[in-house]
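Bench notes, afternoon.
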Amino acid sequence: MAGRIEPGRKAREAYVDTSALIAFRDRSDSYHLIFKRLFASPPPLVTSALVITERHGWFLRRYDRERAKEFLAFIEALPDLTVQPFGLPELSEARGVLTRFGDQNLTLADAHGLAIMTHRRVTVCWSTDRHLGLTGVALAIPMVH
């Protein structure tokens, strides 16, 4: 399970998607307990700046400014999180992912996440979104059952 590392071995990085952040921060989410357990002892984490943007907007619209600010404070407090930037080079790469998986309804954030996982050789994705397993990366949901 994510978070448990043999002594002397470097932790494998996990990609964190929007749905995992929602589930962890929203106690009413059906996956809350799963992600609460994963975030209790996380490996090094990586995500997209687009994921942070999506979730901030979600908390702002679903709840209020305070919950949105609490979300940002949570992100800043994560001990080993890398947030990958999104600019023109990443847009071009994400467009390639969208073309490759043209039969799927991927968001730009999904495509950027898939590109990040490929480049960083991430093997585990914390998400409830099955699209993020398109490249063969294991999703956390089946792993914790």
